[in-house]
Amino acid sequence: MADESRLDESRLEELRRLCAAPLPHPDVAEMRRAGESVLRFAIKDYTDLPDRPIGAYATPRHEMEAIFRQEPPEHGQPFESVMAEFERFVSPNSLRVSHPRFMAFIPGAPSFPSILGDWLASTVNFFAGVWKEAPSATLVELVVLDWFKEFLGYPAEAQGILTSGGSEANLTALVVARERLVFADRSRALIYVSEHRHWSVDRAARVMGLGQDQIVVLPAAADGRFSIPDLEKAVQSDTREGLLPWVVVANAGATNTGVVDPLDALADLCGRRKLWLHVDAAYGWPAVLCAGEMLRGIDRADSITFDPHKWFGQTFEAGGLLIRDGKELTRSFAMLPEYMQDVAADEGEVNFADRGIALTRRFRALKIWFSMKILGVGWFRRLVEHCCWLAEMAQLLIEESGRFEILSPHQLSVVCFRYLPETRGKTTDEELNRLNLAICEDIRRQGRFFLSTTRLRDQVALRLCFVNWRTRSEDVAECIEALVNVGERLSAGNV
Ligand SMILES: Cc1ncc(COP(=O)(O)O)c(C=O)c1O
């Protein structure tokens, strides 16, 4: 007995000695030097970006492997050499989606205050999952969500959460909507979507264990919007067949075309038929900041996905979800395991971990709060106007050139079109598709602009999407001119 306690004491002594000091880590002078170097890089990168090429695109895998494939380093290297590696190999070898001439997919274009807010959030590294650990972070998120609620016309009882992006928000919304179903009904419940829904909705359904046949995809009307008569008919006939119409997912800014579905009419239909209306406004939601009725009816949705990292000047990842009847969010997700008993939410406290999928959450709200306070809502309103005007201007130039066909006129800040060669009369649709894909690829390879394509009614469309405060009319004019030149060259066969 006596021996054992001596043994314990010697082990304790050894442990005391082993852990007497923190691990070696860069000291204050080194942190200052390294931090200043990163800041210098960030400011230069931010200011120079418009003057540089868009970045590397589709580099073959073996080239990247040759640069980056390494054994994990057992011993650390000086900051300067790793930073130099970052500057030389990491930074230039991906596309810069925040570049003002990147007009593909849905770009991201953070303001500098958002970048700084993101950095500060990493610095404090608050645990934004529970109130007791992070009351300030939680309240800042609640305040930001309240601002968005107000913009979107949502009532006080609505609740929300910031997410990694629109995919997580759409999944979270559908999980909440499912709580309304009794278990036995889950396999016959149907989600109605238009052909232009974002595919994250399909993936959410798959993650939730729904069958592909539980997603009813309806062709859009001629203007690209949800067809109300078709939806009404589908709901009626599915009900007659013993199925359970359950959710309608509408777009407020479809990824393909920017189209906004008829939200008011959809809300009427969903109200009549007791369906959950989810509006995927991941891209288009900031349009509510502008006068006008672009998103009329969005305030009547049961849930809304909105992504500040798309058209709201934020760094990735900043998505969000609002649920009109806010209590349903907590009802769907709240759990209290034993080891969290100390931080259970008391009256008046909010645990964001009870509102969604993640427990550990970074302080995403900070960059939004920070940038909105520094820039002001007026700046974001101007951002929306600016981008809508760019899309309108692009369409006017496209039409004026006489070389293109508009496939979907500008909606919010997206416009879709295709190049038509002089020989249009003798060109098949398949040849036109190949030509337009080749035009896009050629433009990308030149590295000055980056566009993407989509397919609308089987026709390949060139697509421009504007979300960047730094994109100027001059960039748009130069882009259309470049498209005309490439189109002429490729259709003349001088590839
Ligand atoms: C309309 C829409 N919904 C959802 C998403 C998915 O959002 P995220 O990429 O942030 O997950 C996107 C992405 O482009 C989108 O455009």
Give a brief description.
By secondary structure, the protein is of the alpha/beta class. It is built from 16 helices and eleven strands.
Q: What is the name of the CATH class of the largest domain?
A: Alpha Beta
User: What is the CATH homology-level superfamily of the largest domain?
Assistant: Type I PLP-dependent aspartate aminotransferase-like (Major domain)
What is the N-to-C succession of helices and strands? HHHHHHEHEHEHEHEEHEHHHEEHEEH
Helix content: 40-55%
What's the structural domain tally?
Answer: 2
Structural class: alpha/beta
- Could you tell me which ligands this complex binds, including any ions or cofactors? pyridoxal-5'-phosphate
Quick check: average pLDDT? 96
CATH topology of the largest domain: Aspartate Aminotransferase, domain 2
How does CATH name the architecture of the largest domain? 3-Layer(aba) Sandwich
**Poorly predicted ranges (pLDDT <50, ≥5 residues)?**
none
Query: What percentage of the residues does DSSP assign to strands (E)?
Result: 5-15%
What value does the Rg take, in angstroms?
Answer: 26 Å
Separation of the first and last Cα atoms: 89 Å
Please give the order of strands in the largest beta sheet: 1-7-6-5-4-2-3
Overall 3D geometry?
Answer: globular
Task: Kindly state the number of beta strands.
Answer: 11
Largest sheet: 7 strands, mixed
Number of helices: 16
